[in-house]
Amino acid sequence: MQFELAISARMRVHLGTNNGF
Protein backbone atom coordinates (compact mmCIF):
# COMPACT_ATOMS: atom_id res chain seq x y z
CA MET A 1 0.00 0.00 0.00
CA GLN A 2 2.86 2.38 -0.79
CA PHE A 3 0.70 4.24 -3.30
CA GLU A 4 -1.88 5.15 -0.67
CA LEU A 5 0.85 6.24 1.71
CA ALA A 6 2.39 8.44 -0.97
CA ILE A 7 -0.98 10.07 -1.68
CA SER A 8 -1.57 10.63 2.04
CA ALA A 9 1.87 12.20 2.43
CA ARG A 10 1.30 14.42 -0.62
CA MET A 11 -2.10 15.50 0.68
CA ARG A 12 -0.57 16.30 4.06
CA VAL A 13 2.18 18.37 2.46
CA HIS A 14 -0.40 20.12 0.28
CA LEU A 15 -2.51 20.99 3.30
CA GLY A 16 0.59 21.90 5.27
CA THR A 17 -0.29 19.75 8.28
CA ASN A 18 3.11 18.20 8.99
CA ASN A 19 2.54 17.54 12.69
CA GLY A 20 5.09 15.07 14.05
CA PHE A 21 6.01 13.87 10.59
Question: How would you describe what is shown here?
Answer:
- The protein has 21 residues and is mainly α.
- The chain is rod-shaped and about 20 Å long.
Relevant terms:
single chain, 21 residues, mainly alpha, 1 helix
Largest sheet, if any?
Answer: none
Radius of gyration: 8 Å
Query: What's the helical proportion of residues?
Result: 55-70%
Shape: rod-shaped
Which strand-content bin applies to the residues? under 5%
Task: Report the total helices.
Answer: 1
- Arithmetic mean of pLDDT: 72
Q: How many β-strands, per DSSP?
A: 0
The run of helices and strands is H
Structural class: mainly alpha
Uncertain segments: none
**End-to-end C-alpha gap:** 18 Å
Task: Please give the structural blueprint.
Elements: H1 2-15
Task: Characterize this entry briefly.
The protein has 21 residues and is mainly alpha-helical. The chain has one helix and no strands. Helices cover 67% and strands 0% of the residues.
